[in-house]
């Protein structure tokens, strides 16, 4: 089992969300926020989910309040916002820290020292693409939209 698949987060509803359940499936992991200028990317993430979930892609939204306090709500408020505003059908985690001393282990794996694409998360909606074996294969900036040709090409390459 890869180090990624050994990580467990809490889902937005408080239940456990072991990443081992996604072994063998590509993951697009995105730190998200409800009150950001990039928040409309939720709509495109949901479109990708609708388009590629049956082919194996899992989109994982990871709420974070570390960037200008743009995710101040409770998990329940975040879930309701995502459901009612963007009809989000992909998994969301509880809020985590993506940078600093409280950085969640997921983000240490994705962007910490020794990671393929190391460095602090720069803003909300930074994206990491992970293959089914748990290897990080791409990192996309927050301003790169989920339907950018480079993102689509990388996803389709993993889906075969």
From TrEMBL:
<comment type="similarity">
    <text>Belongs to the glutathione peroxidase family.</text>
</comment>
<protein>
    <recommendedName>
        <fullName>Glutathione peroxidase</fullName>
    </recommendedName>
</protein>
<dbReference type="InterPro" id="IPR036249">
    <property type="entry name" value="Thioredoxin-like_sf"/>
</dbReference>
<keyword id="KW-0575">Peroxidase</keyword>
<dbReference type="GO" id="GO:0034599">
    <property type="term" value="P:cellular response to oxidative stress"/>
</dbReference>
<dbReference type="InterPro" id="IPR013766">
    <property type="entry name" value="Thioredoxin_domain"/>
</dbReference>
<feature type="domain" description="Thioredoxin">
    <location>
        <begin position="1"/>
        <end position="160"/>
    </location>
</feature>
<feature type="active site">
    <location>
        <position position="36"/>
    </location>
</feature>
<dbReference type="InterPro" id="IPR000889">
    <property type="entry name" value="Glutathione_peroxidase"/>
</dbReference>
<dbReference type="GO" id="GO:0004601">
    <property type="term" value="F:peroxidase activity"/>
</dbReference>
<dbReference type="Pfam" id="PF00255">
    <property type="entry name" value="GSHPx"/>
</dbReference>
<dbReference type="InterPro" id="IPR029759">
    <property type="entry name" value="GPX_AS"/>
</dbReference>
<keyword id="KW-0560">Oxidoreductase</keyword>
């Amino acid at each position: 089992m890869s180090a990624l698949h050994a990580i467990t987060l809490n889902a937005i509803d408080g239940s456990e969300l072991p990443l081992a359940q996604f072994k063998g499936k590509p993951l697009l992991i995105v730190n998200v926020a409800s009150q950001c200028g990039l928040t409309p990317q939720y709509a495109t993430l949901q479109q990708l989910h609708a388009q590629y979930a049956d082919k194996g892609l899992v989109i994982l939204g990871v709420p974070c309040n570390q960037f200008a306090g743009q995710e101040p709500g409770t998990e329940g408020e975040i879930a309701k916002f995502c459901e009612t505003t963007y009809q989000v059908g992909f998994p969301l985690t509880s809020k985590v820290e993506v940078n600093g001393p409280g950085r969640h282990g997921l983000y240490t794996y994705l962007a910490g020292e020794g990671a393929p694409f190391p460095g602090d998360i720069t803003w909300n909606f930074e994206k990491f693409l992970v293959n089914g074996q748990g290897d990080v294969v791409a990192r996309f900036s927050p301003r790169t939209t989920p339907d950018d040709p480079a993102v689509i090409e990388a996803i389709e390459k993993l889906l075969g």
